[in-house]
Design brief:
3 domains, 10 strands, alpha+beta, four-stranded mixed beta sheet, elongated, six-stranded mixed beta sheet, 4 helices
Length: 255
């Protein structure tokens, strides 16, 4: 049976053939993206940021924000997700819990460290995060000076090191924790000030060295007159009783 097509049918069929490869390409791209990344509604990320501040000589504080940075945060959600907050200033410690949407499926025991001068040198702060199975929140413990005290942050046996860094006075990334939602925790710790004695002592040492040098010059001219007159016969031994008197508070005088 012969079937006749109108000009309109032929044009429609031609357009369908041109559009079919584009539709197949888009479908393939969508399936590939879904397999690799999951559905768009389930894209995983560090949903929230936790900002722990321990700059002032007082109790450490913690705030939670829905993204952004600690210096330019988004919405403050501390009241919604942070519970059981306990803070102390002697020693400087902080503990709290962060809520999870579902019960925790996998146990995790992690810690992060901040060092004062170099990694492995003088310790400053410890952050410990514990996720217990079947719980709907996990525990965060932060301990500042003294470093790693016995008790709250003293037992790290079995814990996994997450991150470590030398403190720089800014908010520093201590790691991302939790299952859903995830929390990226940052800590800002005070950088130890250089003791004033370290600044004064080099100056005192320089002054003492200068005074000793000048004293030795005066001693040479006084005890060895030949330096002045050029006559060797006028040499005489130095009399210890002729030492110049020094102030009892002179930093260059040894007791």
């Amino acid at each position: 049976m012969n079937v006749e097509f109108s000009q309109a049918d032929l044009r429609r069929r031609a357009l369908e053939k041109r559009e079919r490869p584009i539709t197949l390409s888009l479908t393939f791209f969508w399936l590939t993206a879904t397999l690799l990344c999951g559905p768009l509604s389930r894209v995983s990320r560090a949903d929230n940021i936790v900002c722990i501040n321990d700059v002032a000589e007082a109790k450490p504080t913690a705030k939670v924000f829905s993204g952004g940075t600690c210096t330019a945060p988004n919405i403050d959600i501390t009241a919604d997700v942070l519970t059981n907050l306990t803070s102390s200033d002697k020693p400087e410690t902080l503990t709290f819990k962060l809520k999870q949407t579902n019960a925790i499926a996998t146990f995790a025991f992690s810690y992060s460290l901040l060092w004062e001068d170099k990694i492995g040198g003088e310790g400053s702060d410890t952050l410990i995060v514990t996720l217990n199975v079947r719980q709907t929140s996990f525990t965060v413990a932060f301990c500042s000076d003294p470093f790693n005290p016995v008790g709250l942050c003293g037992d790290l046996e079995g814990a996994t090191l997450s991150k470590q860094a030398v403190e720089n006075g800014k908010y520093q990334d201590m790691g991302t924790f939790g299952e859903a939602p995830k929390y990226n925790i940052f800590v800002q710790s005070d950088v130890p000030e250089v003791s004033s004695s370290y600044l004064v002592l080099p100056g005192i040492a320089a002054i003492c060295a200068l005074r000793r040098r000048r004293g030795s010059r005066r001693l040479s001219r006084r005890d060895y007159p030949e330096i002045r007159s050029g006559s060797v016969e006028q040499r005489r031994p130095w009399n210890a009783n002729e030492k110049a008197e020094q102030s009892p508070h002179d930093p260059c005088t040894k007791p």
